Amino acid sequence: MSNNFCRYLTNGLRVQSWHGDLAASPCCYIPQISLRDPTFTQQMQEFHSRVYCNDCRSKKPPIQSRLRIPDVNHTNPVYIELSIDTRCNAACLSCNDYFSSTWKEQNQKFQIRTASDYPDPQIDTQIVHDLFNQISFRNVTCINFFGGEPMVSGVTELVLQRLVDEDLAPQIKLIFTTNASKPPRDRWLHLLTQFQKVEFLLSIDGIEEQFEYLRWPLKWAKVQDTIDSIQELHSYQITVSATVSALSIFGIHRVQQWAKEQFKSSKYFGVAPCAGIMSLNALPYAARHLIKSRLPSFPELNQMMVGKASTQALKDLQQYLDLWDRNRRQDWRQVFPDAVIYLDNRI
């Protein structure tokens, strides 16, 4: 009997790779288990049979309901998230070297880490072979490609081709969670037309100069070009999701307005909380009142700011921003002037 409170535990699977070592879990709150672990199948079955979950029971249901993952009462996944390639053309402040090859280059350039800290690059053909060998895709109806950046990934096309070759494409909706810096490659286009539906979820935390600061070294003009290219290609769905951090939150109202004007509807815009050093834990209470006054009818965003403000988190954020401003010759104070009074330790 499947659980009745969380569709991830029943039908979702989140798969990641750290240089060829595949691991998975039902959701982002439960630690991942290596697919090479002999108890992997048993542990997945135990998740499936849970009647209670301590990990995120009070946090997750609103997100679950949006995904509308059907309960089909089996342990084979219906929804799969793939983060199996860390190649990325950006070193976003909200990300790190676990998900971005550009962050690895930055850390080595500024002697934060060395090449010996990173394993050898994965072999794309091998990782895709292992993925399909160890996980059944026969019941999958939705795949969300994360990264790295799926538009520059070496494995995206290999996965798409494998799904087409196994005649699974007609039953599957694809979602590409992308930084919007590059449209799909020309040679993918024939493959994409064979899938049930294709959605591009643009991860955009700011617009214009704020986007370029947060998503360094990407350029805003490329985002506009990418959107134009996707809209010209086919009737693909485009949505926007902003990663809300203690810095990007000061420009979220601008992103929301841009998305509404760009796509003629507010339904194409959503938000997701940032974890780590850029999280909202660093956001002072006074700043939260400012944000709520700007977006009074945005309950999902307001809910993200319910947590306790941490003085230490704010100090860590200040040091982090100042460090990377020096390294990249940027200045967050100029790009986010209305955040200065709340986040600047110089005042």
Description of the molecule:
This protein is an alpha/beta fold and 347 residues long. The chain has helices at 7-11, 40-49, 61-67, 101-109, 124-134, 156-165, 189-192, 209-214, 220-233, 252-263, 285-294, 299-304, 311-328, 332-335, 340-343, and strands spanning 12-18, 21-25, 33-34, 79-83, 142-145, 173-178, 197-203, 237-244, 269-273. Strands 3-2-1-4-5-6-7-8-9 form a nine-stranded mixed β-sheet. Strand 5, helix 6 (156-165) and strand 6 (173-178) form a beta-alpha-beta unit. The longest helix is centred in the C-terminal third of the chain and has 18 residues, at 311-328.
Question: What does this entry show, briefly?
Answer:
The chain has 347 residues and is α/β, with parallel strands linked by helices. The chain has helices at residues 7-11, 40-49, 61-67, 101-109, 124-134, 156-165, 189-192, 209-214, 220-233, 252-263, 285-294, 299-304, 311-328, 332-335, 340-343; strands at 12-18, 21-25, 33-34, 79-83, 142-145, 173-178, 197-203, 237-244, 269-273.
